[in-house]
Amino acid sequence: MAVRTSAVRRRAAALLVAGAATLSGCAGTGDGPRGLAAAARDLGAGEEVAVGLDIPWGLAFLPTGDAWWRSGTPGASSW
Amino acid sequence: MAERHTGRVLLVTPGGDEPREVYTVPGVAGPEGPESGWEGGLMGLAVSPRYEDDGRVYAYLTTEDDNRVVRFRLGGAEPEVVFDGIAGNRYHDGGRIAFGPDGMLYVATGDAGRPALAQDPDSPNGKILRLTPEGEPAPGNPTAGSPVYSLGHRNVQGLAWDDEGRLFATEFGQDAFDEVNLIEPGRDYGWPEVEGDGGAGVGRFTDPLLTWTPDEASPSGAAVLDDTLYVAALRGERLWAVPLDAGAPGEPTALLRGRYGRLRTVEVAPDGALWVTTSNTDGRGDVRAGDDRILRFEVG
């Protein structure tokens, strides 16, 4: 899998390990070429807040933090 | 079945009751059922930064005539048009809206299948717009009196700011490269002259921060949590995590790959959790039991 980033290309000639970092990054491990800690650990099991929705799209939070909104779209959405 | 095509707004309370319909946005155009080639409808949603005083919610929708932004009060009367006249189409309708740290309303639009609009400064299509909450061109925009904040976009569906106020936007490419752009006022991001990198070399355009191929991404929603930009990928069926260093990207990591299918939206909740929505019932995904869903993830 070839994640193609500007950062990767800028460093490709001087730092071949960047390619390996790209591959390992896609597998969910490793630091990036800038030495930044990528979000290496995958997320755990998600808590299902709501199921059976019809094409949810927008999601926004109320300032109280105890309630959430989402919209359902008519028709399919992008890609 | 008809409900999912009515433009409903639902209230979702974690650990609480079933989602509850609290408003229906009228005038939403679209087919009666999922249709692969249709991308419009009720899309972006934003809560007024003065919600406790004004009680307003903003939404971006496709009507029979255009794409537009409206605002309303939950349980209230007809919505008020905030900004209209964004050309619509079966695809490339943009649709994300968000209030920035400056209190202005940012609107991500698409080119509506007419690429030249993205380079037309008088068209709201293929742009990121910056508006006052009342829908007027925001003070301080690159061109006084114009809502245009940046141009040269094909179809932007993700907007997110980091703690320093930098704006990141995700953009669907055509065949070769999806983009994450660092948005700066007045910049031209190249579409349709350039897809992906290469625009900066000719002087007029700004290159993306990073690119993916459409099968890796097709990026919709975006959110920043701490020093990481998260991007929800539809066709890529994963959540991209991009470490940030003063706005510069490190190596992206693919999360949730192969677990939930197409991902539309990612947002940071007030408690710091990530909320992610799936989009498998949109006519382009493999629907699995429980779809579509909203998921909550603890991070760190």
List keywords for this structure.
heterodimer, A: 79 residues, alpha+beta, two-stranded antiparallel sheet, 2 helices, extended, disordered C terminus, B: 300 residues, mainly beta, Neuraminidase, 4-stranded antiparallel β-sheet, 1 helix, 22 strands
What does it look like?
The complex is a heterodimer of chains A (79) and B (300). By secondary structure, chain A is of the alpha+beta class. Chain A has a domain at 1-38. Chain A has helices at residues 6-12, 17-26, and strands at 47-50, 56-61, 68-72. In chain A, strands 2-3 form a two-stranded antiparallel sheet. The radius of gyration of chain A is 19 Å and the shape is extended. With 300 residues, chain B is mostly beta strands. Chain B has a domain at 2-152: Neuraminidase (6 Propeller), CATH 2.120.10.30. Helix content of chain B is 1%, strand content 38%. Chain B has one helix spanning 51-54, and strands spanning 8-12, 20-24, 42-47, 56-62, 67-73, 80-86, 97-99, 105-108, 127-131, 148-151, 156-161, 167-171, 178-183, 210-212, 219-225, 228-233, 238-245, 248-249, 253-255, 263-268, 274-278, 294-297. In chain B, the strands form six sheets. In chain B, strands 15, 16, 17, 18 and 19 form a five-stranded antiparallel beta sheet that branches. Chain B is globular, with a radius of gyration of 18 Å. At the A-B interface, helix 1, helix 2, strand 1, strand 2 and strand 3 of A face strand 1, strand 3, strand 4, strand 14 and strand 17 of B.
